[in-house]
Amino acid sequence: METERQIPRSIPIPQLLGAMRNRIPDPFRFGLYLVLASTPLLSISGEVFGVVSMRTVSNLFLFPLLGTLAVLVVFKPDRMDRTAFAGFAWGLVACAGYDFFRLPSVYVFHLWGDFFGRVGGWATGASSNYPAGYLWRYLGDGAGIGVVVFILAAGIGVSSWPRRYVIGFTVAFAVFPVWAGLVLTDGLAPAGRALFPLNATTLALSLAGHLIFGAILGCGLWVSQDRDPSGFAGLGTKPTRVRRGPGWRGWP
Predict the structure, then answer these.
(1) Which positions ≥6 away from 85 have C-beta within 8 Å?
(2) Which of 15, 168, 174, 216 could make a disulfide contact with 94, Cβ separation 3.0–4.6 Å?
(3) 242 part of a folded domain
(4) Short-list 214, 68, 62, CA closest to 140
(5) Cα angle vertex 226, ends 179, 223, to 5°?
(6) Are 190 and 174 in contact (CB under 8 A)?
(7) Which residue from 222, 208, 179 is spatially nearest to 87, judged by alpha carbons?
(8) Cα–Cα distance between 132 and 116 in angstroms, integer?
(9) Handedness of CA 250, 79, 174, 157 (dihedral sign)
(10) How many degrees, rounded to 5, is the angle at CA 186 between CA 173 and CA 104?
């Protein structure tokens, strides 16, 4: 029940970092997931600013890193993998929810453009490629953010928080750094490289979409993660297990 949840409170930084270390059994795998899942989104900024092309990132970094992770998952599986897979799946669902709101605003009401053809072109070396762009959006951006959020949540003990705080955590992450990073990238983009024009309409629509994404991701995190409040919110208290039915259990 919601009343059984522990409310997050202030914890001294050394104690918090120590608890986080205890909750992460494999720091290398944890870091690998973070880097791999963040790369698709960050590579768009790299392309916009002309630092490195998305095609180069894919061929020389993303796919080799994905191969390394696949070897680990197959030959040395860990419960952290289940966390990441749950985040991947819920990231896809959240991205679909975002598009359920976004696509009518693009193709029915014509309030802004669809820049994912351009993103797909950057990834494939073409001028425009919508199938590749939407694969990047769903499998890279949406699912990648889901993985990052789920493993960070497991690392800091979000499972011990009340539902409103869990959803607040994911919504906050969707707004900053994700939405804020998108707006900053667009605002600082060189001439002709912006993803979409920044104005009151596009800012409101993009923010609303990210709020939807974050809320869906939070609901997914709530229903799928372990209900064992042994994370940061439970420090100094006796853990009380809350049963929520079958689902992903994170890692010990």
Answers:
(1) none
(2) 216
(3) no
(4) 62
(5) 60
(6) no
(7) 222
(8) 8
(9) positive
(10) 75
Name residue 47's amino acid.
Answer: E
Structural domain boundaries enclosing 64: 9-234
> How many whole angstroms separate alpha carbon 172 and alpha carbon 214?
7
The answer to whether residue 125 is domain-embedded is yes
User: How far is residue 222's CA from residue 49's CA, in Å, rounded to a whole number?
Assistant: 37
Give CA–CA dist 218/165, Å, rounded.
Answer: 9
Q: How many domains does the chain have?
A: 1
What is the three-class DSSP state of 199?
Answer: coil
Is residue 249 situated within a structural domain? no
How confident is the model over 98-141, as pLDDT tens digits? 999 999 999 999 999 999 999 999 999 999 999 999 999 999 99
Name residues whose C-beta falls within 8 Å of residue 224's C-beta, 6 or more positions apart in sequence: 86, 90, 247, 248
Residue owning tokens 């959240």: 94
Whether the predicted pLDDT of 4 surpasses 90:
no
CA separation for the pair 179, 191 (Å, rounded): 21
pLDDT at 157: 87
Distance from C-alpha of 121 to C-alpha of 132, rounded to nearest angstrom? 7
Q: Is 104 within the bounds of a domain?
A: yes
pTM: 0.85
Confidence grade of residue 59 (pLDDT, cut at 50, 70, 90) = very high
